[in-house]
Structures are given as structure tokens and as C-alpha cells.
Amino acid sequence: MPHPFRGTLLIAPAPVSEYLSHRACPEIPQVGGEQYRKGFLEDAQYRKLIEHCRELWFRALAECGRIHSWRVSELLTMRVSQVDVSQRVIRLEPGRTKNRDGREVMMTETVCQLLSALVHDKAADDFVFTRANGKPVRDFRVKWQNACVHAGVPDLLFHDLRRTGARNLRRAGVAEGIIMKIGGWPTRIVFERYGIVRRSDEPRDSQVAGIGEASRA
Q: Which DSSP helix (H) or strand (E) runs through 162?
């Protein structure tokens, strides 16, 4: 989205403009509409990422981010009551997401196995993502950075998994409208910043393709 003041001449009142004219002002880079991150995580890199950190919560968090394109804040605040293992469904309640809308997705086999282990013997109001000592996962920046270095993608952000998930779903042939609902993108303009894929890309991940089939059912 273009900056609202881009291309607009702003004139300061005379006393202020005269004051500024006698002093060197630093150059401020323009805020362009195309300066979006383009980070993606390929399958081989992903395997090395989780190879570095085998803790259950880390593997589950990364898998959910990569498959369902959910924000890290949505995942870390998730409660056990939002995971229905028997129906293989995860729910985000209305009002608890960035755009305030609720969402529901079908779990892949891998996500279901990981989350089943995480919620085992927990109460409904407990956090899903907890460490081995039972404490909720809050800050994992150091562990994430170390895993990214090991995977050869030192600049990767967790948010790039959201972009990766969108691309993989498009490769699997899932309709863009469905992908937007899964990831919680409110508009196509916002979605297009993430869902970058060539038309020649072919479906590659059977688990992701399974999401597509469940979404279209």
C-alpha cells in the first residue's frame, strides 16, 4: 500500500521552514509499497531446522506455522480446548486473532500427532505449547536463531513460515479464497504479499494437499 504522503509536498510554517533551511536534515528513505519480505523455507531447510531442536513444542510450533500459516501469537496463546484430536480440528476463537475473526482448520497427520502429544494429560484451559517443565512457551528467539543458523537460513523469521505455508497451499492447488481463510488474510492485497508462487509450480507435499482436499470438502 503506497505511503499516504508519498509524492505530497508538505510545507512547514515560515518560522519553522526558515529554521530548518539553516540546518542539515538527514535523508529519510521513502516507504515504498513493494518493500515486503520474501523469505521462504524449503523442505530440506525445514528438516535441518527441526533436526537442530527436537523438543516437542518446537517441532509442533514450526509444523503448525509451516502447514497452517498461523501467526506465532495465535499459536502460543492456544489452549487445549481449541484442539479437537478426535475430529482432527484446531480452532481459533473469534476475538483472539489479529483481525478478530475465528478460524478452524483440519490437522494433517503430522500436526495431529504432535499436538496430541502436547495436549496429553492437560486440562482444557492449559496452554498447548509448553516446555518440558510445564511452563508455557513465551520467548524462543535464541533457540529459533540457532536452529535457523543450523538450517542455513540465519535471517529467517518465524513469520516467514506463514509465507511458506501460503505458497505450499497454492502449489497443492488450494483455492486462494480458502488459503486466505486458513491463514486469516482479510484482503487479497494483504494475501498477495505472502502467496508468491509461479504458475508452473506443481503440488509437492501430500500432507499439504490433504489440507486442500479437506478444505474443499
A: helix 159-171
Cβ atoms 108, 67 nearer than 8 A:
yes
pTM: 0.69
Model confidence pLDDT, tens digit, residues 21-65: 444 444 433 334 434 456 789 999 999 999 999 999 999 999 999
Contact in structure between 90 and 83 (CB atoms under 8 Å): yes
What per-residue confidence (pLDDT) applies to 38?
61
Beta carbons of 57 and 137 less than 8 angstroms apart:
yes
- In the chain, DSSP finds a helix count (H) and a strand count (E) of 10, 3
Question: Which residue in this structure is represented by grid cell 523455507?
Answer: 41
Collapsed DSSP state (helix, strand, coil) of residue 79: strand
Say how far apart CA 213 and CA 108 lie, in whole Å. Answer: 11
Nearest to 88 by CA among 185, 205, 175, 213: 213
Strands 83-84, 103-106: pairing is unpaired
Kindly state which CATH superfamily the domain 43-216 is placed in.
Intergrase catalytic core (1.10.443.10)
Would you kindly state where each structural domain of the chain is located, as residue ranges?
43-216
Q: What is the pLDDT of residue 214?
A: 45
